[in-house]
Design a protein that fits this description.
The chain is of the alpha/beta class and 383 residues long. The chain is built from 14 helices and ten strands. Strand 2, helix 3 and strand 3 form a beta-alpha-beta unit. The radius of gyration is 20 Å and the shape is globular.
Length: 383
């Protein structure tokens, strides 16, 4: 029987665990959450708040040259200019020297992206932000703490996504976390949108179908339907900033609790086995970035020498092991984004990173036998 692991994605829990948000408040503390209809909308709202506080008429926002095109969608919706900076060599982090050099009197925010769940160097970026009086927006769409003790967000505002394939997924929705009441005043004050009976039933059916289809015995079939655009990176303009619906809001705490109850065995075992290969053509990125072993990742990222990456990727996909190249290139190279970023180019480290990145699945559906198969395939190609 065909078998295909999805690259990311945990089942959505439909149960409501508690009538109050006591646990959720503990997770977010000392931040206050404000909920939106998507992670992209939440990011746009955070940028709009930054513009209001900064008070410039020609706002600019600094962000990495490699990342999700939804970053651009949020910046454009907010009426700001996206200013890209290159990455550091063989790292998912922005070059700090370029970040500092890119700041002008019109800069309102720096967006620090936690790619695959690996945190940016927030301490250093905060120093730059404080020195230049700009906001530090922590894009935590791909990072959610594995426990209350690990909740270490540091941005002036923190953006979370609850979209499909995110750490905590509600198949939609997002949030902005803030501490300073100024941000609360400038963020859209969206009450939760009430969901009617029809909407609740539709959401429940959609969620049950999603949970069913991400099972490895069925996920492979989705590849036969190009109209679904599974795994594609596409640029979509943000249409509006609205509230999260009540159907999703009611199950948020249950899904956070479920996510935090998952073990870390998959990432630990995968890291150990990758290291055992001893191949210099493969960089174990979380280890190279000194990410603590207890840290929860959305995907396990490797940098694989471009001479063999495509072969490794192809064999893993053929074996049903949920490998992904993430985004196909730097942001200016993604279809639909080029016109927005006209005149911005020359990001050699980001281009090299895009050409070497390979991610492996570490979600709840990955079994020990899958990890062994992944490592066996990689060893076969590298031998």
């Amino acid at each position: 029987m065909p078998y295909q692991l999805p690259p990311a994605g945990n089942p959505v829990q439909l149960s409501v665990s508690h009538n109050d948000d006591t646990f959720l408040q503990t997770v977010f503390s000392p931040y206050t959450p404000r909920f939106f209809n998507s992670g992209t909308a939440a990011l746009a709202a955070a940028i709009l708040a930054s513009i209001s506080i900064r008070g410039t008429t020609d706002p600019e926002v600094i962000l990495p040259a490699y990342g999700c095109p939804d970053l651009i969608s949020a910046v454009v919706y907010a009426g700001a200019k996206p200013v890209l900076v290159d990455l550091e060599a063989n790292r998912p982090w922005m070059d700090q020297g370029q970040v500092a050099a890119a700041i002008t009197a019109d800069t309102v925010a720096i967006i620090a992206v936690s790619l695959c769940g690996m945190p940016e160097r927030l301490d250093a970026l905060r120093q730059i932000a404080v020195r230049t009086a700009v906001m530090l927006i922590e894009d935590s769409a791909q990072l959610f703490p594995g426990s209350v003790a690990e909740a270490d967000w540091q941005g002036d505002m923190v953006v979370i996504s609850f979209g499909r394939g995110k750490p905590v997924s509600l198949l939609g929705g997002g949030a902005v976390l803030f501490q300073d009441e100024r941000f609360g005043r400038f963020l859209p004050d969206n009450p939760v949108a009430s969901s009617g009976i029809g909407q609740r039933l539709a959401f429940r059916m959609k969620t049950q179908l999603y949970n069913w289809l991400i099972a490895p015995r069925l996920y492979w079939a989705l590849q036969w339907f190009p109209i679904l655009h599974i795994g594609e990176t596409r640029y979509h303009q943000l249409e509006d900033i609205g509230p999260i619906d009540s159907a999703r809001r009611r199950i948020l705490q249950a899904n956070v609790m479920s996510y935090m109850q998952q073990g870390l065995d998959t990432s630990v075992a995968l890291s150990s086995m990758i290291d055992s290969l001893g191949d210099e053509r493969i960089v174990n990125l979380p280890v190279a970035c000194e990410v603590p072993a207890k840290h929860r990742l959305l995907r396990y990222p490797l940098l694989v020498d471009s001479a063999i990456r495509n072969r490794v990727y192809t064999r893993l996909v053929e074996s049903g092991m949920g490998a992904s190249k993430m985004y196909p290139g730097i942001l200016p190279a993604i279809s639909g984004v080029g016109a927005v970023l006209a005149g911005q180019g020359g990001f050699p480290m980001a281009e090299r990173f895009a050409g070497q990145l390979l991610t492996l699945p570490v979600h709840a559906g990955v079994r020990r036998v899958d990890i062994q198969k992944i490592v066996a395939v990689v060893r076969e190609i590298c031998s």
